[in-house]
Amino acid sequence: MRSTSEQSSTNQSATCRTIVHQMGKTEVCGQPQNIIALGPYVLELLLSLGEQPAGFADHISLHQGDYNNPTAQIPYLGARITTQPVNVGLAYSPAFESLLRVQPDLILATELNAAQYQQLSDVAPTLVLKNFDPQANLRTVAMAIDRSEQAEQLIATTEQSFAAAKQSFAPIVAAHPRVLALTSSDAQEFYLATAFNSQCGAAIEKLGFQLVYPPGLSESDLRVPAPVSLEILPQLMNEADFILLLGFNWNLPNQLDTSEQFQQSQLNPLKQRWQENPIAQSSEAAQSGRVYFIPAYLCLGLPGAIGTDLYLNELKQQLLSSP
Fold first, then answer.
1. What is the pLDDT of residue 124?
2. What secondary structure does DSSP assign to 143-160, as a single string?
3. Taking every pair of C-alpha atoms in the chain, what is the biggest distance, in angstroms?
């Protein structure tokens, strides 16, 4: 007769899954309990599948100490967190002493952590996710935490949300189909948001709009944050029926009380400088009141189901009430 410990080991082995990810294959056994999310990108995936983090690393140092009040300390996602995650440093440079304090049985990372993969794997089974492939990443995380059926339901729900939004936007697409989507912090340097480099542009195109690009760019050019020179900017603005400005600002205090304050901090500097920029104000879109400001964080930092809902809601609120 097998001992209780042998039976337990056999049962756990029966529930092991081999997960394919960016750095190879990793075996995850049983149901992970202490999960670390390196970055809001992977935290979003975890929360959307109904699991809670034991540790979290943000991309920027918004908070010092552990997350004892996540609603105020983690933008947009904090209200969904019922634990008090250990602060394990920055997503691209986690603090290994803090990682060990969590005693994790699963670490969710991104390609930013590729160089640290072996060290992370020595701590716990580690999955490295793609920088931009929300559905594939969701399925990978779901397999690791035994939520694959829920992941497929979530993907289907997100597709239904896009279909409904596309129908709502159809009159606007018919009247103003061409969109210039740019990320910027200061209205002096601009980068293209494309259908290939982020959910920011991909969602716009999925709604039926046509993104405006500089001539001569290949798909490989559009897969990176391509800078837009000030010389060509007026031409692109004049080709666009409306302009979508995705603002970001990492010069922040260490404490923000609400997601609303975080959103204001992302947009206010860009709005002010855009108003002061004569080139920006000369475009037909600007003169017609068809320039819209949305935090880039929603589609760059949160490209999964939660961020997509927030992003679509922002687009609806602004565009559906536009002239």
1. 98
2. HHTT-HHHHHHHHHHHHH
3. 83
